[in-house]
Write a structure and sequence with these properties.
The chain is of the alpha/beta class. Helices cover about 35% and strands about 25% of the residues. It contains eleven helices and 13 strands. It has a five-stranded mixed beta barrel.
């Protein structure tokens, strides 16, 4: 099984992040020195993916532009002798092969994935959502790709969440195969705590088989009146073709303001030039608010 494409749905309105996302796509909001979407793309590249399929809309061309050359900016940086910055903007432009497809109506995540059918054709592919940022050694989409390559099955990433949070996620039920891997038998989209089959919640990393497209074609609208990817995944589970892997490392939900701000602090603390001053300022702020 060879997997080279990552589908990254970016057509949504980012309402959780308003008003910051009124005119700037949520995926382009900065976390430390990069926009959110660049972290997602770099995670995929690090796992061996070479092509990114952005499922976008007419207002999101700035995302594709970020991974293209900007000759005017490059000339300005070159004339100013800002060679490190010049090198970085050129590096970003050469990161990955970008393919854009339009989702003309936002009818749910399942519909967004279906929109990429003509690009992915009969190949397995990854899906990476920009809300979920994952950092750490051997975590994220690479973990799922390893399992998919070894088994030939579709794989979803899961994490354990508190019972009072399960209603925000798709939740799996399955057989524990050991080493944090599960054979998925059923999935429920945004269940109440009483109805949740477990506390293993699906987050925004998937490796899917091309037969998911046929399932999605016949999929009825589910929770929220949208075509839910979780519902379509049940079709793979019914055929014993779906596994789940518990992901480790640091995870941030970029659509949640506390998580978003924490992610910025997390990365700033890794910067030796900023760390001491940042810690000092944070301590001052904490002492003022206490």
């Amino acid at each position: 099984m060879q997997i080279k494409k990552a589908v990254i749905p970016v057509a949504g309105w980012g309402t959780r992040s308003l008003p910051a996302t009124k005119n700037v796509p949520k995926e382009m909001l900065p976390i430390f020195r990069k926009p959110i979407v660049q972290y997602i793309v770099e995670e995929g590249i690090g796992a061996g993916l070479t092509d990114v399929v952005f499922v976008t809309n007419q207002n999101k061309t700035i995302i594709e532009d970020h991974f293209d050359r900007n000759f005017l900016l490059e000339q300005l940086l070159e004339r100013a002798g800002k060679n490190e910055m010049l090198e970085e903007v050129r590096r970003v432009a050469g990161l990955v092969n970008v393919i854009g497809v339009r989702q003309k109506e936002q009818l749910g995540l399942g519909h967004a994935v279906l929109t990429a059918r003509e690009i992915c054709k009969n190949e397995p592919f990854a899906v990476m959502l920009g809300d979920d940022l994952l950092f750490g050694i051997n975590t994220g989409i690479g973990e799922l790709l390893d399992v998919a390559h070894a088994t030939g099955k579709a794989v979803v990433g899961v994490i354990e969440v508190p019972d009072d949070k399960v209603s925000k996620y798709g939740v799996i039920q399955g057989d524990d195969l050991g080493d944090g891997t599960y054979r998925v038998t059923s999935l429920v989209e945004k269940p109440s705590p009483e109805e949740a089959p477990s506390n293993l919640a699906i987050i925004g990393r998937y490796v899917l088989l091309p037969e998911i497209f046929d399932i999605l074609e016949g999929q009825q609208a589910g929770v929220g009146g949208e075509i839910q990817l979780t519902d379509a995944l049940q079709g793979l589970a019914d055929r014993d073709k779906l596994l789940a892997v518990k992901l480790g490392g640091q995870r941030f939900d970029a659509g949640d303001w506390v998580e978003y701000l924490t992610a910025n602090i997390y990365f700033a603390l890794q910067d030796e030039e900023l760390r001491d001053d940042l810690v000092k300022r944070l301590q001052e702020l904490l002492s003022c608010s206490s």
